[in-house]
TrEMBL record:
Subcellular localization, as worded in the UniProt entry: Nucleus
Cellular component, GO, one term: nucleus
Gene3D superfamilies registered for this protein in UniProt: Rubisco LSMT, substrate-binding domain
Keyword annotations: Methyltransferase, Nucleus, S-adenosyl-L-methionine, Transferase
InterPro entries: Rubisco_LSMT_subst-bd, Rubisco_LSMT_subst-bd_sf
A GO BP entry: methylation
Protein biosynthesis listed as a keyword: no
Organism: Ramphastos sulfuratus
Rubisco LSMT substrate-binding domain ranges (all copies): 4-121
Any GO MF annotation of the entry: methyltransferase activity
Keyword Amino-acid biosynthesis: no
Primary location recorded for the protein, binned into one broad class: nucleus
Protein's name according to its UniProt entry: N-lysine methyltransferase SETD6
Upper classification of the organism: Eukaryota, Metazoa, Chordata, Craniata, Vertebrata
Pfam families cross-referenced by the UniProt entry: Rubis-subs-bind (PF09273)
């Protein structure tokens, strides 16, 4: 369901791997009985037209059912915890020109990428909270 990398791709405005995230949340939020029924009915291929036409925009994330919101919220928190530093520390380093200039070009680029990733994750937390 998740793909080879085992990750979902979130953008500023929407989930870029929306099909994978939708299916994963749907399955993980099912009761055992719902899952058995879904599996028996070969539900993997026959999702409703409504689900096929929906997009996981940021607005749609805020309207997820409570169990799915909690699961996604907790997953985002775990992802943020996997970083060595928090968003504030990254911002401070970006704002400190002297310290930033001491970084190699590659380290500066990595800092920008990490900072952007963390900002998106914090945005998702706000939408789900």
């Amino acid at each position: 369901m998740v793909g080879e990398e085992g990750a979902f791709v979130l953008g500023w405005d929407e989930v870029l791997t929306e099909e994978e995230l939708s299916m994963t949340l749907k399955v993980l939020c099912m009761s055992e009985e719902e899952f058995k029924e879904y599996k028996e009915q070969a539900g993997w291929e026959d999702d409703s037209e409504e689900e096929e036409n929906s997009t996981l925009s940021n607005e749609a994330l805020s309207r997820l059912k409570v169990p799915c919101k909690k699961l996604l919220y907790d997953s985002v928190l775990l992802t943020l915890e996997s970083y060595r530093s928090d968003l504030k520390a990254e911002q401070e380093l970006l704002d400190n020109k002297e310290a930033f200039d001491k970084l190699s070009g590659r380290e500066q680029q990595a800092l920008h990428v990490r900072y952007g990733q963390k900002r998106i994750l914090h945005q998702v937390l706000e939408l789900l909270g």
